[in-house]
Amino acid sequence: MFAMLPLAQYLARHSHRLFCRRLNGLAVAFGLALSLIAGPPGSAAAEPADLAAKIEAAKSQFRPITEDDLKAAKNNARAAADRLSRWLDTAGPEQASAWREYLGYEAFKPSLAPGADVDVAALTAAGDRLSDPTITGLEKRRFIALREALDDVVDTAFFSAVEGLQAQFESQLDGLAADVARYRDEPTDALAVQIGQRLDYLARTDAVDPLVEEVRMRISRPNLLVHISENLIDARIGRPVHRVGPIHMCILGTDIHGTATTTGLLRADVRSSFSRAVFDLKMDGVSHTNNVGRNGPATIYTTGVTDLHGVQPVEVTKDGLMLLGPYASARTRTSINRVTTHPRFLQRIASRQAAKKKGQAEVIASRRAEDRLLRQMAEGVTPEIAEANARFQEKFLVPLKRRGAEIRQVAFSATDDSLLIVALHAEQSQLGAESAAPPLPSAADFAVCVHESMVGNASETAVGGRKFTDVKMAELVERVRGEVPEELQIRQDKDPWSITFARRRPVSVAFRDGEIRIAITGTQFTRADQTLDRPAEISAVYTIERTDKGATLRRDGDVEVQFLGAPERLGVREIAFKTFLRNKFSALLKEEIEGDGLKPKGEMLEKVGVLRLAELSVENGWLAGSWNREQ
Fold first, then answer.
1. C-alpha pair distances (Å), 207 with each of 261, 390, 427
2. 198 and 181 in contact (C-beta within 8 Å)?
3. Stretch 593-599: mean pLDDT, rounded?
4. pLDDT beyond 80 at 195
């Protein structure tokens, strides 16, 4: 069965998981750092003379995949399935049954039995279901473990059944050497896809992982850079502080009640660091107190002034915001305004005792003020950080985890007034940017450089191979644009339709010479009861025009619909579908897309306000823009 499965078809079906499961974390971190300092392709750093020799030498590392390897992979998958099954049973029979039905337990479980034939279709279907980013729960480690184990069975079964595997392995290495050499002079997206597929194949053999990682490091660079200024962080978090509250404490046997009025300023302060992104939330203020203390027969009336300084460090990580250890300092100065006693003849003694203990009481009061400040800062900051992390997890990290697509290649740094995030978004079968990013403007409040590979790679994670009905498309457009164009709205008088996105490059862009080309590729289309199983690309080209408010994208000509690999002469059915698709996607890729600044959404970001475009360039595969906060 596997021997008859074409290599290209196998890779197309099984290479859409983000990042190699066996990637060495230390090597990835080193590779990212290397790619940040390496020169552009063609330089000595990017492609050493011995790289071709290393690829040639890797042929000797071939290791045949045996039946014992397949048996071990099956045992591992069977154990993962059993652990998941036992865990599902704890949720009750109804939920457990629903999950087993969704995963197709009865279809894929027989393939894991010793000596049984591997049903690749059933295992692949289960793996696809386990990778659905919309299904809540698939981010749990037991689901992830089963998905990875099933993938391993498919890989092992494929390679153990291929005839002439060593010749195929060596052919892939020869092709890789030739493609890498050509990529130096022709860094095209098509060639990058081909190199990515070769690396994906080699990675799945588990024979030459160090070589695969080295090739990636040398020709695949970060494809996303984000710059965030201290000013922008402060706009979101910074605020004046005014708090009035009761005080109750006991100092040196004196029971004190009173009121504290605290005023100050909470602000953000970025720490300079080569390898981390940390900013401090600093609270500087003063607290005025009016207190009454009682100790035995004496009543002591005091006022106090406390200078406050608190710091809550926050680190930006790939998993969200992390609170580090806070610290605070306070200095209290008190004035004893009056001492009364009952009986009155004790008043002089009480006054002397209060004055004698005043210094010690001020030290204790200072420490209590520090504790109170730390508690108040935590109460004010922790919920906001938790909410930000929850939104980040829900909207970004959890869907990626369900797809097996956690972003691991990311680096952070900071100057005295800004944070820099550099990321390489590329899966096992993908490459990042072929050239270094243009410099980011350091004076901007917010700046981003995105390479066209980032868009293509991310689209494979988000929609690759998935079917979107007209309802899903309308929901997606509404989330992105805030409204649904009339042509895409769901109405009774319109035929239902769908698009199944290509697994490879379902959405791609080209950033060249001030123009943006957007292309959407589907492999199947439906309209009412008609189905068209023919790949087609829907594309549009836009030019960018600067305006007083921002920038406007103007479409150059009509939306184009091209059937891929189709004969030159189209039949009546193809022509009808072509017209239908052009009308639908012309509403999405409309003639003019006007931008009037970035408007951060969500209650937490409303304070930031509108960000106005400062600079914008589209050249050499990169889109680079910077924005400043509107004062």
1. 68, 40, 19
2. no
3. 75
4. yes
Sign of CA dihedral 163, 164, 170, 174: negative
Q: How far is CA 178 from the centre of its chain?
A: 34
Q: What's the pLDDT band for 237 if we cut at 50, 70, 90?
A: confident
Buried b (16+ CB within 10 A) or exposed e, 301-322: ebebebbbbbbbbbbbeeebbe
- Quickly count: other Cβ atoms within 10 Å of residue 113's Cβ: 10
Instruction: Say if residues 256 and 301 touch (Cβ distance below 8 Å).
Output: no
Give the number of other CB atoms < 10 A from CB of residue 468: 18
Judged against a pLDDT cut of 70, whether residue 567 lies above it is answered with no
**What distance, in Å, lies between the first and last C-alpha atoms of the chain?**
66
Is the pLDDT at 598 greater than 60? The verdict is: yes
What is residue 475's predicted lDDT score, i.e. its pLDDT? 86
Supply the Cα-derived Rg of the chain in whole angstroms: 31
543 exposure class (CB count in 10 Å sphere: 0-12, 13-18, 19+): middle
Report helix, strand or coil for 513: coil
Question: Cβ neighbours of residue 229 under 8 Å, at least 6 residues apart?
Answer: 417, 418, 444, 445, 446
Identity (one letter) of the amino acid at 318? K
Q: How far apart are CA 25 and CA 410, in angstroms?
A: 11
- Chain position carrying tokens 């509404």: 478
Is the Cα torsion angle 201, 397, 465, 556 positive or negative in sign?
Answer: negative
Given this model, what pLDDT does residue 408 score? 63
Average pLDDT over residues 43-63: 74
Please report the sign of the dihedral spanned by the C-alpha atoms of residue 351, residue 355, residue 357, residue 360.
Answer: positive
CA distance 571 to 578: 11
Query: Residue 234: which residues within 8 A CB-CB, separation 6 or more?
Result: 267, 268
Give the model confidence (pLDDT) of 76-133 as tens digits: 999 999 999 999 999 899 999 999 999 998 899 999 998 899 998 999 999 989 988 8
Alpha-carbon dihedral of residues 577, 582, 585, 587, nearest 10 degrees? -130
Q: Cis bond leading into 246, ω under 30°?
A: no
Q: Whole-angstrom Cα distance, residue 38 to residue 222?
A: 11
Take residue 291 and report the two structure tokens written for it: 């207190």
Q: How far is CA 69 from CA 64, 155, 209, 441, 604, in A?
A: 10, 11, 17, 53, 52
Kindly compute the dihedral angle of the four CA atoms of residues 323, 324, 325, 326, in this order, to the nearest 10 degrees. -60
Contacts of 268 (CB under 8 A, 6+ apart): 230, 233, 234, 237, 238, 279, 280, 281, 282
DSSP string, 459-488: HHHHHTT-EEEHHHHHHHHHHHHSS--GGG
CA distances from 484 to 178, 474, 489, 498, 522 (A): 47, 6, 6, 16, 21
Decide: helix, strand or coil at residue 22. coil
Give the residue from 580, 571, 570 showing the smallest Cα distance to 538.
580
